[in-house]
Design goal:
This protein has eleven helices and 13 strands. Helix 3 (about 60-70) packs parallel to helix 5, helix 5 (about 95-115) packs parallel to helix 6 and helix 9 (about 270-280) crosses helix 11 (about 320-330). The strands form four sheets. A seven-stranded parallel sheet has the order 3-2-1-4-5-6-11, with helices on both faces. It has a two-stranded parallel sheet with strand order 7-10. Strands 8-13 form a two-stranded parallel ribbon. Helix content is about 40%, strand content about 15%. With about 350 residues, the chain is α/β, with parallel strands linked by helices. The structure holds nicotinamide-adenine-dinucleotide and uridine-diphosphate-N-acetylglucosamine. The site of nicotinamide-adenine-dinucleotide has 26 residues, from helix 1, helix 5 and strand 5. Uridine-diphosphate-N-acetylglucosamine binds near residues 216, 229 and 292.
Amino acid sequence: MKILLAGGAGYIGSHTSAALLESGHDVVVLDNYDNSSPEAIKRVEKLTGKPVSLYEADATDSKAVFDIMNKEKPDCVIHFAGLKAVGESIKQPLRYYRNNIDTTLTLLECMEKTGCKKIVFSSSATVYGEENPAPCNEEMRKGSCTNPYGWTKSMMEQILQDAAVADPRLTVILLRYFNPIGAHPSGQIGENPRGIPNNLMPYITQVAVGKREKLTVFGGDYDTPDGTCLRDYIHIMDLADGHVKAVEFSQNHKGVEIINLGTGQPYSVLDMVNTFQKENNIRVPYEIGPRRGGDLPVVYADAGKAEKLLGWKAKRNLADMCRDSWRWQKNNPNGYDGLEIEK
Ligand code: NAD
Ligand code: UD1
């Protein structure tokens, strides 16, 4: 199959590109490099020994997207193209709504015009909101989000579901990711955050590599075994494999499916710090600080539906995630060329 990955040069898109190529699919990537570098895709080509059709384009640009889809005629679109920083979304809500909603509408309209009927969407566990206790399952009603980023995901899910009601030939797979971390085991591609990382693992690796002084653990007084929050961390290679399964599943399926991609196994912030230190034999200085607004104490997936429907289950453990994240950071202290991390 030929798959168009909108936002495919980013963290999840680059690993998914590699997984799709390894599974024998053709990959077309469209990205405006707002938060990525074409270097990631060059490295994917080197790793897999297979070519990617790469386009620098904005997924809100109808003409550019139409021209690419009309030329490439993909069997399926994976929609990764979006802004994802929670804190930034609170400061710049209009930019987040404009970009994330517009990319979704543009991709759907161009699919309609070019006859593409399959779309896999990057959603997030954040749509479960605070109303739903862990483990989150796909039958639960969506909850209220605590920030504009989360609301864009919730709204985009709705838009995609409405489009599928209007066009029964459309297949929509809403993948709700839990906490993707780790990197390709080669250490050649990985997560490349701009500025100060918001997320736990890139912060830990930047402390370990000496770019940041210490990690602040956000809250040590939660009602959890060690007082820190529990999350469902999933290896990026498992997540990428989940996309391959979802794309293949979409070929013989109509309508909407919501599918969690998580491990079902929660770990605390201190579990993560301790495992990282032990596996990599490196110190990660930290202090316990105040809670971060909007954090929920416990979030993890019911991962049963993905196994049943896609035959997919996460295989890698926390130690693998810690080793692979560190290999990437150590080999690429400044990320991809030309994308220096700001101090
Ligand atoms: P990322 O920032 O690395 O990748 C997103 C890519 O989209 C980037 O390459 C960026 O340049 C591109 N992009 C953004 N707006 C675009 C536009 N208008 N036109 C073309 N390209 C555009 O992020 P990621 O971690 O790879 O996430 C991919 C998707 O998964 C995002 O939609 C994100 O919200 C979602 N998601 C990520 C996580 C996570 O923890 N990483 C969790 C849940 C959901
Ligand atoms: C966050 C977002 C979520 C988004 C996801 C992926 C919030 C409230 N949620 O999830 O919407 O989909 O990222 O981008 O921002 N932690 C620390 N110190 C740090 C960083 C994190 O202690 O410097 C803790 C957090 O409190 C949390 C855990 O580590 O308990 C994981 O945090 P993070 O990686 O930011 O993911 P989430 O908060 O789960």
